[in-house]
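Input sequence (278 aa), recorded before submission:
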Amino acid sequence: MLLLAARAFPDRIEAATVDHGLRPESAAEAAMVARACESLGIAHETLAVAVEPGNIQAEARNARYGALAAWIERRGLSALATAHHADDQAETLLLRLNRGSGVAGLAGVRPLGRVPGTAIPLLRPLLDWRRAELAGVVAGSGLQAVQDPSNADPRFDRARLRLALAEVDWLDVPALASSAANLADADVALAWAAAREWEECVSKAPMGLAYRPRAPRAIALRVISQIVRELDGEEPRGSAVARLFDSLIARQPASIGKLVARAGSDGWTFMKAPARRA
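Predicted structure, token format:
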């Protein structure tokens, strides 16, 4: 992406390499990128981060985006662009299918979003490109591509899936990426419908919020999720919201997080659970 952006937007971009410090070679690889940027006349900065223990890939992602957001603000830049491509999109779709994700999750990565936890625009301009096409751009430039060994490390779900996809020829990666884009459109439509349902069917209750559901289940689940966020301040799991919905439909008392919910003749009420006695 660096090469394409340098040609499309000369003198208008800067680059950063995040060194997670997880491999001995990472510092040398960051230095190689710095030299490539220097040859192209692009300002470059290496951002060293410390990755918290736990889920390595998830924690590395959190550290990466945090460092990039701080860099963007420090440099006075307007947006962040990443090189996610069609193969990444297809892998994300299949991984989330395997985990039972809903429409929002299956929509995959979006062409335009926000850097997590910020209002900084996040651009992904290469979602229509294949990995092999981008490798061809690098090879044609005379630069040597660096292969991250973690991309083939079978400890990671995405790496195992990538290896499996390389062994089959009947999966159509562009078609999978197109399906993710179609699901993104559906997600936008559901969000729009849920916003209308909220405006027309959710109201204040004496100790919380009342909801008189009118929409189909998929939309009602989104409204309930928003109610939980409003009252509890937490992002509920989709499976927990679905169980809550089913209990309320059956006129059974239910709870989620720190909230309790009741079904009545005029709709559902949600409120903070009473404090437990010591």
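Checked by second reader. The chain has two domains: 2-175, 206-272.
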